[in-house]
DNA sequence: ACAAAAGTGTTAAGAATACACCCATGT
DNA sequence: ACATGGGTGTATTCTTAACACTTTTGT
């Protein structure tokens, strides 16, 4: 072993990629940086992880501090990847552990200490600091995969939902239209959702049956979706 | 932001999970710890990541130092997961970035500085330090998944191989027998491998055709395997 | 009555599974 | 000639993909 004297660890940071659906589009939470480097540029919310703090705890703290979003309001959190970045920081080399979070009806806070948090459609992002555009693209591809082999959509939807809403969620994430009849047939055959007694009435058209997930936690599908 | 004074990063370590096939079994590289904690207990090769060093570089250095295995001899390396561990180390909290490596004909070195590196069948592991048994189980499950949706087997096989060898590799990783005719039909239909002109003669039976991968790098399958 | 979204079935093609015998070689 | 592993085909079931009209409601 080499480090018999003083051991100096690399800077450790955490970044969050928080997705939700808004107006039928998949959106991601960004902040406007209020310090150099990349002052004034949009970026993923991130910050330092301190000794004695797990990366997950650091993620929760940083997310709350910078965006006002509480991780208790997320339905699903998952570690994404750990990036080695050379010029992430004026200190030089840093290691960034990134987490993906999914939720619904998330409200970025507003206040002087927050960094203008806002959700942007993933198909219409502003210029981003660092390699954050790549990280978002990677998270998006992971999310697509996750929707095909798990029931992770539940984290993007309300407790009860119509089949059209469910299909729209898949279409928003996957970025392409799906056949209505095939979608319903297949999804119902998976046995993950069940009809409730309620209907959803809205507008001048036939009411829709409301469904719910049988189990509100992450399940792996045996037949992968699409 | 909280850390305006001195910032102290958590201890950052890297661990390697190196797999290869030996005598038809999937094996993983372990060392016998020569220090506390867990002195004398088998463990995954791991060590500190220092400032100025990427986690990947640290993994390469640590692996070579502790086992004599050179990462240049690995056919495939992939970051696995980053574990927050509380009691990993006498220093207290640590963050461990783990990498999975695949290779063939890997020879652990021997020498006074090395920590008795040896390959053990994943189905017959000794008692392990820390949560390394869990980490290996996780890596194994990721490897199984990887074999079903990519051509990652190439990293476990020689340049040319028979279909029986290929099937045996799948069976060793997945831990269950596969049907010979269906396996061949499906694998050949994927178009990832092609027959060479050579045959492999061995023993008192019909020689086997040797195949090779068309492209010797990682490909994602469109139809997932099995 | 009409506009708007909900709901519903069939057919055809492709993929997965189950299954048993002959072939080429060395001894 | 026999033992050993290499090599091959078919029938059945299940899954996927393509495709259009009727129903219920509010205005």
Structure report:
2 copies of one chain form a homodimer. Chain A is an alpha+beta fold and 226 residues long. Chain A folds into 2 domains: 11-148, Nucleoside Triphosphate Pyrophosphohydrolase; 150-213, Arc Repressor Mutant, subunit A (Orthogonal Bundle). Helix content of chain A is 23%, strand content 32%. Chain A has helices spanning 55-67, 132-149, 163-174, 180-189; strands at residues 11-22, 25-32, 42-43, 46-48, 74-89, 92-103, 118-121, 160-161, 193-200, 208-213. In chain A, strands 1, 2, 3, 4, 5, 6 and 7 form a 7-stranded mixed β-sheet that branches. The first copy, chain A, has a 3-stranded antiparallel β-sheet with strand order 8-10-9. The model of chain A has no long low-confidence stretch (mean pLDDT 93). The structure holds a DNA duplex (27 and 27 nucleotides).
Helix content of chain A: 10-25%
- Counted by DSSP, the helix tally of chain A is 4
| Largest β sheet strand count, sense and barrel closure of chain A | 7 strands, mixed
Which residues of chain A sit in consecutive blocks of at least 5 with pLDDT less than 50?
none
Oligomerization category of the chains in this entry: homodimer
Name given to the CATH homologous superfamily of the largest domain in chain A:
Nucleoside Triphosphate Pyrophosphohydrolase
Overall pLDDT score of chain A: 93
Question: Which chains share the greatest interface?
Answer: A-B, 30 and 30 residues
Tell me the series of helices and strands of chain A, N- to C-terminal: EEEEHEEEHEHHEE
Query: N- to C-terminal separation of chain A?
Result: 49 Å
Classify the fold: give the CATH topology of the largest domain in chain A.
Answer: Nucleoside Triphosphate Pyrophosphohydrolase
Alpha-carbon Rg of chain A, integer: 20 Å
Q: Care to count the β-strands of chain A?
A: 10
Integer tally of domains of chain A: 2
Q: What spatial form of chain A do the alpha-carbon principal axes imply?
A: elongated
Architecture of the largest domain in chain A, CATH level 2?
A: Alpha-Beta Complex
Q: According to CATH, what is the class of the largest domain in chain A?
A: Alpha Beta
- Structural class of chain A, by secondary structure, is alpha+beta
């Amino acid at each position: 072993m080499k480090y018999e004297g003083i051991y100096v660890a690399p800077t450790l940071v955490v970044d969050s990629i928080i997705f939700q659906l808004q107006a039928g589009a998949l959106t991601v939470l960004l902040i406007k940086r209020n310090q150099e480097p990349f002052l004034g540029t949009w970026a993923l919310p991130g910050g330092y992880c301190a000794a004695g703090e797990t990366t997950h705890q650091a993620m929760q703290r940083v997310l709350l501090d910078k965006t006002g979003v509480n991780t208790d309001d997320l339905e699903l959190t998952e570690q994404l990847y750990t990036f080695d970045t050379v010029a992430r920081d004026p200190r030089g080399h840093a290691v960034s552990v990134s987490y993906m979070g999914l939720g619904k009806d998330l409200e970025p806070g507003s206040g002087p200490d927050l960094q203008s948090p806002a959700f942007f459609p993933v198909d219409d992002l502003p210029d981003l600091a660092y390699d954050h555009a790549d990280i978002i693209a990677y998270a998006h591809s992971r999310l697509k995969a996750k929707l095909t082999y798990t029931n992770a959509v539940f984290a993007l939807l309300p407790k009860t939902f119509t089949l059209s809403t469910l299909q729209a969620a898949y279409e928003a994430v996957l970025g392409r239209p799906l056949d209505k009849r095939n979608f319903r047939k297949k999804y119902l055959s998976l046995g993950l959702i069940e009809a409730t007694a309620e209907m959803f009435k809205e507008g001048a058209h036939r009411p829709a049956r409301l469904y719910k997930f049988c189990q509100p936690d992450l399940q792996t599908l045996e037949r992968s979706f699409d």
